[in-house]
Amino acid sequence: MIVTANNLLGALPPESRERLLELAREVSFPAGARISEEGHRADRFWVIRTGSVTLDMRVPGRRPAAVETLSHGDLLGWSWLFPPYTWQLGAEALSPVRALEFDAARVRELCDADPVLGRAVALRMAEIISHRLQAARTRLLDLYGPYGSGPMP
């Protein structure tokens, strides 16, 4: 399994990964399908197997603004982990997508029942969120910073 900056499963210890995978089910989305909507209830999450997904945010009076693109191995959705369990971003399939879908309530129950697994999931989720925030910061610097500001060393 490939481990990328946005990968949940590949970064977990094998026994934790297997327990989590027991809760997964295969799903697919056609290109253009809305997978999640900003502000709606976050009751599941996905690990992308094939295809690509754009994360976006609402902009009044305009189409949603794309903020990141996810692909093979990436985690789609982290809002399910934190109350009030509402999506912070929307998501749309850019191409046909196959993914593993996880029921958020069942995963939270598993994490509560198995503190080792729960800690591993929470730490990996924190790493993924940190990476995405840093990527967003770099994009904002590229868009709005002085010429040549780019990423910080």
Automatic annotation (TrEMBL):
GO MF term (any one): DNA-binding transcription factor activity
One GO CC term, this protein: cytosol
Domain of life: Bacteria
Cross-referenced Pfam families: cNMP_binding
Start and end residues of each Cyclic nucleotide-binding domain: 8-110
SMART domains given in the database record: cNMP
Name the record gives this protein: Cyclic nucleotide-binding domain-containing protein
Natural source organism: Streptomyces radiopugnans
Organism classification: Bacteria, Bacillati, Actinomycetota, Actinomycetes, Kitasatosporales
